[in-house]
Amino acid sequence: MRRLIVSDLHANGEALEAVLRSARGGYDEAVCCGDVVGYGAAPGETIAWAREHAAVIVRGNHDKVCGGLSEDAWFNAAAREAAQWTRATLTADDLEWLRGLPAGPVRLDTYEVAHGAPFDEDEYLVDDIDVEDLDHALERPICFVGHTHLQCGWQWTRGGLYRLPVPAGHEEERLVRLEPETLYLVNPGSVGQPRDRDPRAAYAIWDDESGLLVFRRVPYDIERAQRRMREAGLPAWLSDRLSAGR
Ligand code: ZN
Questions:
Q1: Ligand 1 centroid, distance to 62 Cα (angstroms)
Q2: What's the rounded Cα separation, in Å, for the pair 240 and 211?
């Protein structure tokens, strides 16, 4: 089975559209690591896609706050404002769906899915030191996470911990051939608000039959997404950062 792995859509309709166009025909099922909403101007659009197409999904911290499940006291002012706007914009039915999303990790036959970390849905896994001892927490050969908005991955072999290659510069994709008897932690990057200084939308495709993992970046209509955010009255800092990818 070929799976489209997405995370942190953050109500960016233009970015999601570009990802789906780019991935079209290349996957059988979609998996979402959370944060469908928050920050962007198109929460109804990203929810509509996730509701219909995400075969596996976990909730993100923004899904919890926008759905009204947890306090936004630890959000910065812009994130809080966006969460309030999102809550006021969504239908009661969509809010209900957000509140019903499962907490990660969700464990399937051959893989698991979490928002932050397999041991804590709100934890950020950024550096090698954050994941060093995580192989003991993994209960499947491959674990997909999101939350940091950084496209990255690690592999544990008998020799130690290695970083997986991701697209750099103008590269569109990087292929990783997965090895047996090896543990992997993979972050597909953020569809709707990348923070790795590459403004292009990020996603991954995982084929469990051929053992191929592809990290991909795709340009999208950033200006249109920004215009919609401004028109919605969302904080300028949130729309500005999309063009910097940080
Ligand atoms: Zn996020």
A1: 7
A2: 38
Distance 180 CA to ligand 1 centre (A): 31
2 CA from centroid of ligand 1 (Å): 24
The alpha carbon of 79 and the centre of ligand 1 are apart by a number of angstroms equal to 10
CA–centroid distance, 192 to ligand 1, in Å, is 9
User: How far, in Å, is the centroid of ligand 1 from the Cα of 37?
Assistant: 8
Residue 126 has pLDDT above 80, yes or no: yes
For residue 146, how far is its CA from the centre of ligand 1 (angstroms)?
A: 7
Among residues 196, 158, 192, 209, the alpha carbon closest in space to that of 3 is found at: 209
Tokens of 99: 């509140």
Does pTM top 0.70 for this prediction? yes
* Segment 94-125, tens digit of pLDDT: 999 999 999 999 999 999 999 999 999 999 99
Q: Which percentage of the chain shows pLDDT scores above 70?
A: 100
Q: What is the DSSP string of 195-231?
A: -SS--SEEEEEEETTTTEEEEEEE---HHHHHHHHHH
How far lies 38's CA from each of 33, 162, 191, in Å?
14, 32, 13
Question: How close is the Cα of 137 to the center of ligand 1, in Å?
Answer: 22
For residue 132, the CA-to-ligand 1 centroid distance in Å is 22
Residue 73: predicted pLDDT: 73
Looking at residue 174, its pLDDT comes to 98
Q: pLDDT of 57-86, one tens digit each? A: 999 999 999 999 988 778 999 999 999 999
Q: Name residues with Cβ closer than 5 Å to ligand 1, which is an ion.
A: 8, 35
Secondary structure (DSSP) of 143-161: EE--SS---EEEEEETTEE
